[in-house]
Amino acid sequence: MEMSRLEKFFVNSSVYNYVYAKTLLARWQQFVGGAIHDKVLEIGCGRGKTSLFLKKQYPTITLTSLDYDYAQIELAKQIPQDAANDAANSITFVQGDATRLSFRSASFDTVVQIMAFHHISNYKDAMKETARVLKKGGTFAMLDLGTPFFNRLVHFFFTPEAVFTKEEMLDEVQKAGFIIEKEQGRRILFIVAKKK
Ligand SMILES: C[S@@+](CC[C@H](N)C(=O)[O-])C[C@H]1O[C@@H](n2cnc3c(N)ncnc32)[C@H](O)[C@@H]1O
Fold first, then answer.
1. What is the Cα–Cα distance from 138 to 194, expressed in whole angstroms?
2. Which domain holds residue 99?
């Protein structure tokens, strides 16, 4: 569901996004390598900074980026004017719910979720929907926060909707019909999986 005002202020700030792209996203991209391809759906794109990052790193993909929060999607749609770059112009931003996707089954080659599932209380449904919209052999790539990240202080200021350990998340991914290809981390989870 929607972020708190504090978290929205934080994740929408330029300083946060600059540091985020240079550190965590860069590390994740190295981990993922060439697994992101062709027709890509991004779940929980927020104001579109991760969408822009994806499109710049993988210029040949066709990217649809979705978020539940109308206000964040409206901000994301402004990126092309702000950034004045071609990458942003080719991203399709849509409002939608990851637990009830409106896309046809087997219509994407890759689904990406970056920092979204800990905001979705029924993330297990989002995982099932991810599997549904992916083609056979398609890729699921994620970056999210695991249980150990949420110490008392973080939990107080940035209360998550869902908390999961690495083992719980790997289990859900496999139950949804994926084979885990790579995984890394406990506080910060990197996972790449292939749909059976
Ligand atoms: C922490 S933000 C991550 C934004 C961006 N991916 C990033 O890493 O900067 C999490 C996003 O998930 C979105 N979200 C929460 N529940 C959702 C749902 N059911 N379907 C789609 N997006 C959802 C929130 O609105 C929020 O924009």
1. 6
2. 5-195
What is the tens place of the pLDDT at every residue in 82-136? 555 666 668 999 999 999 999 999 999 999 999 999 999 999 999 999 999 999 9
Instruction: Say which CATH number the domain at 126 has.
Output: 3.40.50.150
Q: How many domains does the chain have?
A: 1
Is the minimum distance from the CB of 132 to ligand 1 under 6 angstroms?
Answer: no
Q: How many CB atoms within 10 Å of residue 94?
A: 15
Question: Which positions ≥6 away from 144 have C-beta within 8 Å?
Answer: 113, 114, 115, 116, 117, 118, 169, 188, 189
Helix 123-133 and helix 166-175: axis angle, to 10°? 40
Choice from 16, 93, 115, 117 to test ligand 1 binding pocket (greatest atom count within 8 A of CB): 115
* Separation between Cα atoms, residue 108 and residue 98, nearest integer Å: 14
Characterize the bridge pairing of strands 178-184 and 188-195: antiparallel
Cα–Cα separations (whole angstroms), residue 35 to 109, 116, 123, 173: 10, 19, 22, 16
Q: What is the residue type of 182?
A: K
120 vs 44: CA distance, rounded Å: 9
Task: Report the sign of the C-alpha dihedral through residues 128, 129, 130, 132, in that order.
Answer: positive
Distance between CA atoms of residues 43 and 41, nearest Å: 6
